[in-house]
Amino acid sequence: MNLDLGDKCFMVTAASKGLGLSVARELLREGARVLLSSSNRSNLEIAAEKLKTEGFSDVPIWVTDLTKKEDIQRLIRMAQNIFGKIDGVVTNCGGPPAGPPLAITDEQWQTAFDSVFMSVVRLCRLVVPIMEEQGGGSVLAITSTSAKQPIENLTTSNSLRPAVAGFLKYLSNEIAAKNVRVNVIAPGRILTDRTLELDAALAKRTGKSMDEVRAHYSAEIPMGRLGDVDEFSTVCAFLLSPRASYITGQTICVDGGRVQSLF
Ligand SMILES: NC(=O)c1ccc[n+]([C@@H]2O[C@H](COP(=O)([O-])OP(=O)(O)OC[C@H]3O[C@@H](n4cnc5c(N)ncnc54)[C@H](OP(=O)(O)O)[C@@H]3O)[C@@H](O)[C@H]2O)c1
Fold first, then answer.
1. How much is the pLDDT for 217?
2. What is the 3-state secondary structure (H, E, C) of 189-205?
3. pLDDT digit string, tens, across residues 208-259
4. Which atom of ligand 1 is nearest to the CA of 146?
5. Angle between the 18-29 and 229-240 helix axes, to the nearest 10 degrees?
6. Partner residues linked to 63 by β-bridges
7. How far is the CA of 142 from the centre of ligand 1 (A)?
8. Which of 23, 72, 192 to mutate to test the pocket of ligand 1 (most atoms within 8 A of CB)?
9. b/e for 195-212, b at 16 or more Cβ within 10 A?
10. To test ligand 1's pocket by mutation, which of 17, 191, 232 has the most ligand atoms within 8 angstroms of CB?
11. DSSP summary character for residue 103
12. For the whole prediction, is pTM greater than 0.70?
């Protein structure tokens, strides 16, 4: 299927590694232009270099700490300066701190709120009016299956991902008639640095080996395995493309069947 992304311009946040980078790569493969951002310049330079070796030269990068409002404002201005328009935004963020429900400190809650929830609100506040004026656009928020079903030990995610889904569902109603689509993509367990970190933390907490931890998580996935980043990013590229023109206000899981809700 031709996704018709050849003349489209995107911005992907938290895109120096993992899921964000994989979505950026997939959009580039489809012929789109992409601005990569994350909070760490050297990680971004490494990512851009990696993309160069894969045939995507001169991918623009911009340092943006998503917990900072001014950084987000500068990122949007930069995207407009580079591209002259913004067809799509992928909102991704660093994983919030893990821990059981009563062990998260006020400071951890505040940082997680700024990173997971307020970054999406702030990005949408600035980018949706631009898209409305252009006559359309697409926002895709990377969250987690915790938006639908809690995950062991991920209290902040279990609390804040549903809030993001709720905010975006309501926003999607308000702007659908202006041809701006908003969707949420909820990864289950996709193999990235973050998954390795969480596995290592659980292994330490429980005294299990990494293999035992991996087997424990795989057992709750009907497909019996973790996902690959390409299996995730191809769905994202579709949702961002004009081929998904009648899909808005949805939360789509890419999780090997993990979530047990019917809808
Ligand atoms: N992988 C999974 O299976 C899975 C499942 C469910 C949900 N998720 C969620 O999906 C998101 C991405 O996961 P991942 O597995 O790709 O994680 P990852 O490999 O650890 O990558 C995280 C990305 O976030 C960036 N980042 C961290 N703090 C940032 C900040 N303050 N401002 C801007 N960027 C920041 C990092 O770049 P810099 O360090 O360069 O800033 C990096 O590019 C996370 O929120 C995670 O919780 C992942």
1. 85
2. CECCHHHHHHHHHHHHH
3. 999 999 898 899 999 999 999 999 999 999 999 999 999 999 999 999 999 9
4. 6
5. 60
6. 38
7. 10
8. 192
9. beebbeebbeeeeeeeee
10. 17
11. G
12. yes
Residue nearest to atom 6 of ligand 1 (CA): 144
Q: Which residues pair with 174 in a beta bridge?
A: none
- Rounded CA gap, 143 and 185, in Å? 6
Find where tokens 């424990």 sit: 216
Give the HSE-up count for residue 192: Cα atoms under 13 Å, Cβ half-sphere: 21
Strands 251-254 and 88-91, sheet pairing: unpaired
Contact 116/93 with Cβ under 8 angstroms? yes
Instruction: Tell me, using a 6 A CB cutoff, whether residue 40 lines ligand 1.
Output: yes
DSSP assignment of 18-36: HHHHHHHHHHHHTT-EEEE
Residue type, 231: E
| pLDDT exceeds 90 at position 115 | yes
Residue 30, ligand 1, Cβ within 6 A: no
